[in-house]
Write a structure and sequence with these properties.
2 domains; 13 strands
């Protein structure tokens, strides 16, 4: 103790230097992750791209701007917007959209695909979660690195959060939901950055007169609305047809109506403020829940967790869960099978009026779960 008293200035300097070193290391990590460029390798089915800021110039030069990939068939037909990466800590939606961009082909109609819907949310992690920045998948070109981001836009881009977020409808939510893009639709052209992204997507759908939209999500295994499709009332008949086909394909899926009084979500606001048939799909993601152990790359990829095994045995989960976990391939397979079945349902119901949508090159649920195939086989 006498040593510290006699050398208090030295100890102060040592502590200050250590603090600066820790701050420097952490700061570099935050900076590098924010500016990391995730590689997307479009396949031959992509005919062109454009930036989302084409539909809201306020996004130009910001971390909210993102690339829209267009897959056009030789035959004119209906149009379909697929939103992946709404919440970057829900990787199956992001990876399903990536798979469509890298392997999908369109014979009739047009697909618009946004793999990184909230691009800002890919530039950070949720605080205090100890999440990895990346997960890795072996692909045709070697091992590729994909971002595991946050549920919300980066606070560097939009700060501070208010105590209460008042949606444009007048609905009030927790202040942090202002950075959750799936609470900000239909958006505000000159609002917060997250609202500007929502506005651009709404404006794009209206300007291009896109017939159908699907938002790809994941949820905690203990969350009731899971392994489900949520549909706007105008899309319920089509969604019902798709659900039957999904069941025939071995995908257990429930159909939920979009709550009329719950504002800000794609399945409600895009259905109300555009002519699109608005859908949202949920799969079960153990790395996102509250009951798991360490958040690791292995948990993201395999979905295996001892604590979720105990929760399943106690009857606390809303998905089937055993020692096989809930692997990323299975979750992506559910989304891709859903995309294909809802496309077929759209064509059956509206093909004569709006034109067919015909897509090929995508794996089925069976391909990714029992066909001996891996997700990386469909990534470049």
């Amino acid at each position: 103790m006498d040593f510290f008293k006699k050398n208090k200035h030295l100890m102060t300097a040592v502590c200050a230097a250590a603090s600066l070193a820790v701050a420097g290391i952490a700061g570099k990590d935050f900076y590098d992750f924010r500016h990391y460029q995730e590689v997307i390798m479009p396949g031959p089915g992509v005919t062109r791209t454009f930036m989302l800021s084409d539909y809201n110039e306020n996004l130009k030069g910001t971390f909210g701007d993102t690339t829209v990939y267009v897959l056009e068939g030789e035959q004119e037909g209906g149009s379909f917007l697929i939103l992946g990466g709404t919440h970057p800590n829900e990787p199956s939606g992001h990876m399903a959209a990536m798979t469509i961009v890298e392997s999908g082909r369109v014979e009739a109609g047009t697909l618009y695909v946004i793999p990184r819907t909230d691009n800002s949310a890919f530039t950070h992690n949720d605080p205090q979660e100890g999440s990895p920045h990346f997960f890795h998948i072996d692909t045709k070109s070697g091992t590729r690195e994909f971002v595991f981001g946050s549920r919300a836009s980066n606070p560097i881009d939009q700060w501070p959060d208010p105590d209460v977020y008042t949606h444009s409808s007048g609905q009030t939510l927790s202040g942090s939901e202002m950075r959750n893009i799936n609470r900000t639709y239909p958006g505000v052209k000159d609002g917060t950055m997250t609202e500007q992204i929502s506005y651009a997507i709404t404006n794009m759908i209206n300007t291009l007169d896109i017939d159908m939209e699907m938002d790809l999500h994941e949820a905690s295994p203990e969350y009731p609305t899971i392994n489900a499709t949520v549909a706007h009332e105008r899309a319920m008949s089509m969604a019902s047809m798709g659900i039957l086909e999904l069941q025939m394909a071995g995908v257990d899926m429930s159909l939920e109506p979009s709550p009329v009084s719950l504002h800000g979500l794609t399945h409600r606001e895009l259905g109300d403020h555009t002519n699109t048939l608005a859908l949202l799909m949920e799969t079960g993601n153990p790395s996102q829940g509250r009951l798991h152990g360490k958040t690791s790359e292995d948990l993201i990829l395999t979905g295996k967790d001892d604590y979720y095994m105990k929760a399943a045995a106690a009857g606390y989960l809303y998905i089937p869960y055993d020692e096989n976990g809930a692997p990323l391939e299975m979750r992506v397979g559910r989304h891709l099978q859903g995309v294909q079945e809802y496309i077929r349902a759209f064509t059956d119901m509206y093909g004569a009026e709006k034109g067919e949508i015909v897509v090929s090159g995508l794996p089925s649920y069976e391909d990714l779960t029992s066909g001996g195939h891996k997700l990386g086989e469909y990534l470049n």
